[in-house]
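It is worth pausing here to work through a concrete case rather than discussing structure prediction in the abstract. The textbook approach is simple: state the sequence, then state the predicted structure, then interpret. We follow exactly that order.
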Amino acid sequence: MERQQVEMLYRRFGPMVYRRAMNILRTETEAQEAMQDVFVTALSKGVSFRGESSPTTWLYSVTTNLCLNRLRNRKRRHQLMSEYTQITKTPNRPHPELLHLVCGLLRTAPVAEAQAAVYYYFDEMTQEEIADITKTARRTVGDLLKRFRRRVASKEVEA
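Step two, the predicted structure:
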């Protein structure tokens, strides 16, 4: 889809996309971000609009899917942070600065990577146990942990 087409869609259907996002996400900030993401998606993946439906139907579908993904990600990150908070209340708690660093890394890491790190480092599960719980291959768990370790190493270099 060309830029002019997306601009026209934005001017014409932006309010509809915003209302849909607001109905699902329930916050103005997230709804505005979602609306922007919808039109960025239209620019980058507009080829998925084949004209088989109206632009309204297509934008409605893209908005709904994008908002549902945001809700799933928000719920999963909240769950991981709750698990992390429970772990940090143990008597042998690490230094607060370390906890702050790890907490920040878990928030910014992709969900699967953060999940594997919590299971491995906090719950002390084996890679095989994590693979069973997450229904992934053990090798995938190893790759996720390797990426998380690289993320930690890059933060240590920055500090």
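Step three, interpretation. The chain is about 80% helix and 0% strand. Residues 94-158 form a domain with the Arc Repressor Mutant, subunit A fold (CATH 1.10.10.10).
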